[in-house]
Design brief:
Largest interface: A-B, 35 and 27 residues
Shape of chain A: elongated
Order of helices and strands of chain B: HH
Shape of chain B: rod-shaped
Structural class of chain A: alpha+beta
Strand content of chain B: under 5%
Helix content of chain A: 25-40%
Radius of gyration of chain B: 34 Å
Largest sheet of chain A: 5 strands, mixed
Distance between the termini of chain A: 120 Å
Number of helices of chain A: 19
Helix content of chain B: over 70%
CATH architecture of the largest domain in chain A: 3-Layer(aba) Sandwich
Number of domains of chain A: 2
CATH topology of the largest domain in chain A: Beta-lactamase
Distance between the termini of chain B: 111 Å
CATH superfamily of the largest domain in chain A: DD-peptidase/beta-lactamase superfamily
Radius of gyration of chain A: 38 Å
Structural class of chain B: mainly alpha
CATH class of the largest domain in chain A: Alpha Beta
Number of domains of chain B: 1
Number of helices of chain B: 2
Strand content of chain A: 15-25%
Largest sheet of chain B: none
Number of strands of chain B: 0
Oligomer: heterodimer
Number of strands of chain A: 21
């Protein structure tokens, strides 16, 4: 009750009761606040902090780029490009029939299939489309359907498609290498993603770091020794030959004779690595995975072993026994395609006489022949480290009988892959030094392994040059303006343990002879139309690829053709081109 | 009393400065984050351009333009002439 006062100073004075009442109310209010505060901050701390963090704190992944695969000139062979993953949180979805139809059309899905995904109400993350283009993702988002979201990912793209497919390989949907260089150099190419814990404001902007950022480490680029232009030209030449001869497949590998670097490695038929589905029968890189009996392409190796041992000379005379030679103490007969009569060692290679080779190598010790073959790198992996690389097989000399000794000398009873064969021929291109094949670009000088003496190597190169002459087995392997050396091979295929009338035609050659720059090995598997001999099916492929390679690298010509000169002019209008 | 007032004013000023600095920091950080995102976007754009460049300079395309559009071909023996 307010007491009436006459004095103005007593105007605001309250009765003791009211004062206490107000104080009590205020104190009780404070007590409520304090107890609430204690409850929230003391007893609900964990729960509330968790909630708070959930709305403002985020852990963001920082993308690490996968390295590029590039050729020796820096041209792209594989690169990661941004794509979008379109996904849905089914419980949040609300859309009308029209939106559903539009969405299904954009995603190229049937409406029923789309509905199946949208009906997975127990899940919160369902893929609608992976590897979608950013443009498609934008169009989907423009439909403004609640619950549909996009996420940026990276997908591998291979600009050279079929041409480099076997070599570069491909990755799976998670970006992990599955084949080829993508698998071989996966650790190098893969990066390590980073993380950062950040604070977001109510607008979703990142305003602060809450922890030290774990910086992403991008994958490294891998530079191959491959030349994109040579890869293309090889692929085109192979394709033409395989189609022309109705063959099952074809392979070619081109090496830099001085360094052993692989300049092109191609197979046909191939596949497009950008397509999701890949034909399993076509994905292996036959150049390194498939082994075959080399046939006559091994003769230069076995005969150079004989030349090196000084038991024969290139001019030594061999009687080829009318093309039929029965091994002493055996029922096995070595045959030639025709009677070559009495010929020199050089002609044994030029005419590719099995009988002549057998007679030459018969004199050699098995251990010596075996070790020479091994020194040429046959029977052991090349060391390029390519996934699925085979080592081939050369049986130990202790297991050789007379028949094996004879057959191995002309290329049967042992197996090799095409890369090993090309690598072996670097010996003849480098004065007897073998240059190990390499797939990565090399800037350091290459140290080779001495296999033959300079003299034997030169002699063999001269002999091999005669193979490409009109009298040899591969005149079609000639390259206009250049001296070429090489050897053909036509080997029967073994199917289910028996030789059948199916062949592998091959040619391994070197050019230019005066200063070898390239070694090229070509193999055509099971040619059925227009011949099957190595000189006929693989020779022209060799000529085409080698001719392009020599032109592309501006290698000076070392053979003067008739009517040829240093300047080439167009005869039609007499203009210098 | 006066000293207290001065200290109190200073406290208020410093407190406001601190709040402002924090605000500026967050703004700047947010901008940095946007710039970083832009860097990634530009990198993606660069990738797209590299792919496009690779497509345009592809051997298949060059071969087709050279042979079909420009009528180019490798000179044959008869096309060659010796200039003395």
């Amino acid at each position: 009750m307010i007491r009436k006062t006459k004095n103005p100073s007593n105007f605001f004075e309250l009765s003791t009761f009211r004062r206490r009442l107000v104080l009590l109310v205020l104190l009780s209010l404070f007590a409520t606040l304090i107890s609430r505060s204690f409850y929230l901050q003391g007893m609900q701390t964990d729960f509330l902090q968790k909630k708070g963090r959930a709305t403002s704190n985020r852990i963001e992944e920082l993308h690490a780029y996968r390295g590029k695969v590039i050729d020796r000139h820096g041209e792209i062979l594989a690169i990661s490009s941004p794509v979008q993953t379109i996904w849905v949180n089914p419980p949040e979805v609300e859309m009308n029939e029209l939106q559903k139809k539009k969405l299904a059309k954009l995603l190229e899905l049937r409406v029923e299939h789309l509905e199946q995904r949208l009906n997975k109400k127990d899940k919160q993350y369902v893929y609608l489309k992976r590897r979608a283009s950013p443009e498609l993702a934008t169009r989907v988002l423009q439909l403004k359907i609640p619950g549909i979201r996009t996420e940026k990912n990276y997908d591998r793209f291979y600009p050279e498609r079929e041409t480099t497919a076997h070599l570069v390989g491909f990755t799976n949907i998670d970006g992990i290498g599955q084949e080829g260089v993508e698998l071989y150099a996966n650790n190098l190419l893969s990066g390590v993603p980073g993380y950062k814990k950040v604070l977001k404001d109510n607008l979703g902007r990142i305003v602060d770091d809450l922890q030290d950022i774990q910086i992403p480490i991008d994958g490294q680029d891998v530079q191959l020794s491959i030349d994109k232009r040579l890869q293309y030209t090889s692929y085109q030449a192979l394709k033409k030959a395989v189609e022309k001869h109705g063959a099952t497949s074809g392979s070619a590998v081109l090496l830099d004779a001085k360094t052993g670097e692989v300049l092109s490695m191609t197979n046909y038929p191939s596949y497009n690595p950008n397509n999701k589905s890949k034909p399993t029968s076509r994905i292996r890189n036959r150049v390194v995975t498939d082994i075959f009996e080399p046939g006559s392409t091994i003769k230069p190796i076995t005969i150079s072993a004989a030349l090196e041992s000084k038991q024969i000379k290139p001019q030594s005379i061999i009687d080829t026994e009318h093309g039929m030679y029965r091994l002493g103490g055996s029922r096995f007969t070595v045959k030639d395609t025709k009677d070559h009569g009495i010929i020199s060692v050089s002609e044994v290679i030029q005419k590719s006489s099995n009988v002549g080779t057998t007679l030459i190598c018969e004199k050699l010790d098995s251990k010596y022949l075996w070790s020479t073959i091994n020194l040429f790198g046959l029977g052991v992996k090349t060391g390029v480290g390519f996934p699925g690389e085979t080592s081939g097989k050369v049986h130990h000399f202790k297991h050789w009988r007379k028949t094996e000794h004879a057959t191995i000398s002309y290329g049967y009873g042992l197996s090799t892959n095409l890369l090993q064969l090309a690598q072996a021929y670097t010996v003849f291109a480098n004065e007897g030094e073998l240059k190990a094949a390499k797939l990565l670009k090399n800037s350091e000088p290459v140290i080779g392994r001495k296999v033959l003496s300079n003299q034997t190597s030169r002699q063999m190169l001269e002999i091999l040059e005669s193979v490409v002459s009109t009298d040899g087995t591969a005149p079609q392997a000639k390259v206009s303006g250049y001296r070429v050396a090489g050897k053909t091979g036509t080997a029967h295929k073994i199917i289910n343990g028996a030789y059948e009338n199916k062949y592998i035609g091959s040619f391994v050659g070197i050019a230019p002879v005066s200063n070898p720059r390239f070694v090229l090995a070509v193999m055509i598997d099971e040619p059925t139309i227009d011949g099957y001999y190595g000189g006929v099916v693989a020779g022209p492929v060799f000529s085409s690829i080698m001719s392009d390679a020599l032109k592309i690298y501006s290698v000076p010509q070392d053979a003067i053709e008739k009517k040829d000169n240093t300047i080439v002019a167009d005869s039609k209008n007499d203009k210098v081109i | 009393m006066r000293l207290n007032l001065i200290l109190f004013s200073m406290l208020i000023i410093f407190a406001l400065t601190l709040v402002n600095a924090e605000h500026q920091y967050r703004n700047n950080y947010s901008q940095l984050d946007r710039e970083n995102k832009l860097t990634f976007e530009l990198r993606d754009e660069q990738t797209k351009l590299q792919i496009e460049e690779s497509e345009k300079s592809g051997n298949d395309r060059i071969n087709e333009i050279a042979t079909k559009k420009l009528g180019m071909y490798a000179p044959k023996k008869l096309d060659k002439k010796i200039l003395k």
